[in-house]
Amino acid sequence: MTIDVFWRIPTHGEPSSLRNKLHHRGDWSQQHGDHVVHKGLSGGHDDGFTNLDYIAEVARAAEISGFQGGLIPSFPMTDEPWAISSFLARETSTFRFMIAFQPGFLNPVVAARMTASLQRATGGRALYNVITGGGGPAQLWWGDVAPHDDRYARTTEFLDILRGVWKGGEFSYQGKFYQVENAALPVQLLGQDFPEIYFSGSSDAALASASKHADYYLSWLEPFDQLRDKFDRVKERTAALGRKIKCAVRVDIIARRTEEEAWREVRRGFENLDGAARERYKRFAEQAGDSVGASRQRGNAPKELNDYRDFIIHPNVWSGLSLLRGGQTQGIVGSYEQVAERLDDLVRLGADAFILASTPHLEEAYRVGEEVLPLVRGHDSTATLRAVG
Amino acid sequence: MSAQFFWLLPTAGDGRYADAQQRIRGERTTDDAYFLPGVTDPRDRNFNYFDYLHQVARAVELAHFDGIEIRNDPEGEESWIVAGYVSRASRNLTVLTEFDASRGSAVYAAKNAVSFQRFTGGRFAWKVTVQPNAAARRRQGDFVEEEGLYPRIDEFVTVARNVITTTGYDFNGRFFQVLQGGFQGPLSGQKVPPVYFSGSDEAALKLSARLADVHVFNALPLEDVRLLAGRLEQYAAQAGRQVDFGLRIDVLARESEEEAVFDARRYAEQSGQGTQLQHAGLWAGLTTSTTGADATLVGSYEQVIAQLAAYATAGVNHFSLGAVPSLEEAYRVGENVLPGLRHLINSANQRAA
């Protein structure tokens, strides 16, 4: 069994490096904490291109450099992955679209038809990153009033219906959140591969839902021992239901020819932090939705910002990434060999797949695909290393 | 605004000339050889219906239509996926996407619509439909009673509009809730997709009067359109609004009336439809399951041009035309009907001005 490696699609624009605070690409720019729309690049005039055109570049780079596809995240301020996937279906060849979405926002019968159509449009290249967490006021922004644990129960029902309809024939269902009577997919839409499901969520309610439906249990990087425990737990719970589940790690990496260069990249970004970023860090450390995954990440962070080395929590693991850009806190930093070794460590503690990312995503897709992926052994401990270069 | 001409993209299959059977064009559905053994078939299973839909969309643009209407057919491909798939290949077409308000969260739909606007340079429009049949609704997981259908559309459009145009938006309705909603950053400032509704009953007209940008009449005879348009105009005036009128109609246009009638009769026979020549070339019942119009205008190019132009005098300025097979007919209508029709309508408008 080989491991699957995905890339991440930067839907929220991006800077040219981690030490640069200005987002130049697509139509995003970040200035003084406010998002400003840039029209094109030539004198501020609208050149007709949008962030989708940059995203298309990254998707092409990912497939050319050896990734399975990419996670397309969904945030309040970013373009939606269903839209991105359908627009780019014809512009990519092997790239698999990992669509992040919250099941509560879609009617499951419509979602089944959308998915089957997308499978037909892409030749079976769609898969899901089912997200349910978040919570607090953010969830009401989306128009969703269900409380945390109920949202997972709803996710379970949603996927029950999706699988039921997918099989063909007429399907009926009586749930707490959804009812369906004699639902069926059009006959020409039947027989497509059911999308693989990457499932995120760290609470007990999440694990219960994941055990039933997920193909991959997806976690951010956490301290390695914690992660091993978490993976063991989810595998046990799933085995108790007579199913098998694989595990996946979503992690940012900073890989350079030498370890020194990699840390220099981190140090420069850290030293470049301004007052606003420090203030954001303080807020981040205090902020709370009801996402358990997010608080697990926060729990590992130092309280003060003094030296970037204070955030090194494990060889080649730095927990200050969210200082430099939004998102998860822990990332792998090191030489190409070291990063590959840490990925192999993660494989040994239970990972079967990765979603990697690095800024800027276009150039780094090539770097990581060319320099790091050829060094990863995966499950094959007898594999001999390929020479880098 | 000058008249707009859209072409119907059939999402559940298309047909052929002189053959009324519905087919998933371009797609091999069995392993049986399609050609005789003596002839190489190079296709294998490399193509499916999406390749064909993509080509129709290109044809619509090359044949100088203004837009493409993507039908929401429960027996076909999902309309938003098709819309995204064909949009990237088009430069100027308005992409009018039909869907049912039961598809889910209004905020999520609006957010997807904003992405469509960003990716197309503001060419996305939507047509919100209702499924009048209760059993069909339940098949879609929709258990809303009939009395709730229009109120739900009302809330859907209200919420979608507001999260696109404002921030800090609160809404607490029967079907949708939002707290501090609204899109920011690059997602802000996008054009609200023009809203198209359809329907001939009073409730539909009143809903359109308050919320629609375009109200589409489904292949009704000219006199009926005049009547309903008059009523809608009145309701809209009461609401202090203006609503454009649309017509969704199929056309069977040939070089001569004789050819058109011959093809129409054959189609009716093959599909087992009892047709009725309703009025001035409008054949009720001559309809295809793929395009979904209630009636078809049958006649020579000149006759069809004259008939459509007559609708324009009733105030219709948005035409959604369809015909089978969609690819060939997009070119035929684009080349033989649209130029004369545009000319006729524009000169009538100039005389009126």
Which short descriptors sum up this protein?
heterodimer; A: 389 residues; alpha/beta; TIM Barrel; 8-stranded parallel beta barrel; two-stranded antiparallel sheet; 13 helices; globular; B: 353 residues; 8-stranded parallel barrel; 15 strands; 23% strand; monooxygenase (chain B); alkanesulfonate monooxygenase activity (chain B); FMN (chain B); Luciferase-like_sf (chain B)
Percentage of residues in helical conformation of chain A: 25-40%
CATH topology of the domain at 4-31 and 40-100 and 194-250 and 316-324 in chain B: TIM Barrel
The tally of strands of chain A reads 15
Strand order of the largest sheet of chain B: 1-4-5-6-9-10-11-15
Determine and state the CATH class of the domain at 4-31 and 40-100 and 194-250 and 316-324 in chain B: Alpha Beta
The backbone outline of chain B, from C-alpha atoms, is globular
The CATH homologous superfamily of chain A corresponds to Luciferase-like domain
Number of helices of chain B: 11
Regions of chain B with pLDDT < 50 over 5+ consecutive residues?
A: none
Distance between the termini of chain B: 12 Å
Biggest sheet statistics of chain B: 8 strands, parallel, barrel
Cα gyration radius of chain A (Å): 21 Å
Average residue-wise pLDDT of chain B: 93
Bin the strand percentage of chain A.
15-25%
- Alpha-beta classification of chain A: alpha/beta
Q: How are strands sequenced across the largest beta sheet of chain A?
A: 1-4-5-6-9-10-11-15
Helix content of chain B: 40-55%
